[in-house]
UniProtKB/TrEMBL annotation:
Residues 64-177 form the Radical SAM core domain. It comes from Novosphingobium capsulatum. This is DNA modification/repair radical SAM protein. It comes from the Bacteria. Keywords: Iron, Iron-sulfur, Metal-binding, S-adenosyl-L-methionine. The keyword Transcription does not apply. Its cofactor is [4Fe-4S] cluster. The keyword Iron applies.
């Protein structure tokens, strides 16, 4: 049987990488080859276009080194017992593809992950070698994101951070019980131990850069992780609590959420249907509330129902506001920034603009309307110079009047 060509292997391994959503490329150090040395840049337009969780990434070459794997995680299409077509790249082939695609202006960087082949240490060495070839032999200065393997030797993980802009380790599932049931080869303490080591190395490298100008950078874009949503019985409240713990303990740059997608020849322990993709979207909105809007984790969890699930028909900030109506209405001419950020329909930019404008004049309802997409959503929760909602915020049908019309959610991996 003939061996697949490079392009055939690229098709297999790029498709296998589409389930990993954590490929955004923001926050790294600025580098370029404008001085005539090296190749590539982390600056400019296009480098942050890695948004779609189905692999539609126009700026990063997003591939697996191999989809062979010695682990048998039930939810993974590349698991040991899966009947999928296998392929493998050498580190040199990954580097050659990256440079060739960059010179054709297809990409600005590389996102490289892998199944576990032979052993965790062997696979980690192969990932590092691909990055080393790019950095040292080609002087590639573009963006590199390496998926690291928690079971690998800590020294190998530390080497990865010297070549990569961002490193990441997936926690896979929100609860330890879920991981033990669906990924018996993986261990929560091992994963968290590796994340703690990376976090410490990032902090130490930043401190060293303050004292020594030429100290080496270590993963300047930080570390991230990903959780699968809907493969186990974890509620949204469980996931929010887990994310908050990860942010506080390991100083993560991002936590990504990936809605579980049924796979061919699936294990009987997996659910038969995928969760609504809107659930994934609501978790990202909750993540934003904690990171940018000043909500504590327990406050976001209060937006969930008795079963711990966030509503799908309205966003979590509106759900929280409807549950705690005594916090409203908020006077946009007097309220502090923290209170304005809790008004449904007002984003961070809108709140900053209101704070700036009210120094010059008293704000009217039309002034707020210029800064928000839906004034209807905002009106019940604010007071302006010419508007007071009176009993509007206490109406029993307020939720129904603010909920958007039902729409059919398209599926990324639907047949």
């Amino acid at each position: 049987m003939s061996q697949p060509t490079v392009m055939e292997r690229l098709g297999i391994l790029a498709d296998a990488a589409k389930y990993d959503a954590s490929c955004a490329s923001s926050g790294t150090a600025k580098r370029n080859s404008a001085g005539g040395k090296g190749l590539g840049s982390t600056e400019g337009m296009g480098i942050c276009h890695a948004y779609a969780p189905d692999g539609r990434c126009i700026s990063l070459l997003k591939i697996l080194l191999t989809n062979h794997c010695i682990f048998d995680c039930h939810y993974c299409v590349n698991r040991k017992s899966s009947n999928v077509r296998r392929a493998r790249f050498t580190p040199q082939e990954v580097a050659d593809l990256t440079i060739a695609f960059y010179r054709r202006n297809y990409i600005e960087g590389l996102f490289l992950s892998s199944g576990i082949v032979r052993s965790s240490n062997h696979t980690m060495e192969q990932l590092i070698e691909a990055a080393r070839i790019l950095r040292e032999e080609h002087e590639f200065r573009g963006y590199i994101h390496l998926k690291t393997i928690p079971e690998a030797d800590p020294e190998l993980v530390a080497r990865a951070g010297l070549y990569a802009d961002r490193v990441s380790i997936n926690v896979e599932l929100p609860t330890q019980a879920g991981l033990a049931r669906l990924a018996p080869d993986k261990s929560t303490p091992v994963i968290e131990g590796a994340m703690a080591s990376i976090g410490s190395a990032i902090v130490e490298a930043k401190d060293a850069r303050k004292r020594f100008r030429h100290a080496p950078r270590f993963a300047p874009a930080g570390q991230s992780t990903q959780m699968i949503v809907g493969a186990d019985q974890a509620s949204d409240a469980d996931i929010v609590g887990r994310s908050a713990t990860l942010y506080s303990r390991f100083r993560l740059r991002r936590v990504y959420y990936s809605a579980f997608s049924p796979i061919p020849d699936a294990s009987a322990v997996l659910p038969l249907q995928r969760p609504p993709l809107m659930r994934e979207h609501r978790l990202y909105q909750s993540d934003w509330l904690m990171r940018f809007y000043g909500f504590a984790p327990h406050e976001v969890q209060q937006a969930a129902d008795d079963g711990g699930m966030l509503p799908l028909d309205i966003d979590p900030k509106l759900a929280w506001a409807l549950r705690f109506r005594d916090a409203f209405p908020v006077d946009v001419n007097r309220a502090p920034r923290e209170a304005l950020l809790r008004v449904p329909g007002l984003g961070v930019r809108a709140v900053n603009a209101l704070l700036s404008a009210r120094r010059q004049r008293r704000l009217r309802l039309e002034d707020v309307g210029r800064l928000t997409v839906s004034l209807t959503k905002v009106r019940p929760f604010i007071v302006t110079a010419d508007w007071r909602p009176t009993l509007l915020v206490d109406r029993a049908d307020l939720r129904a009047s603010l909920a958007p019309p039902k729409a059919r959610q398209l599926e990324l991996f639907g047949a």
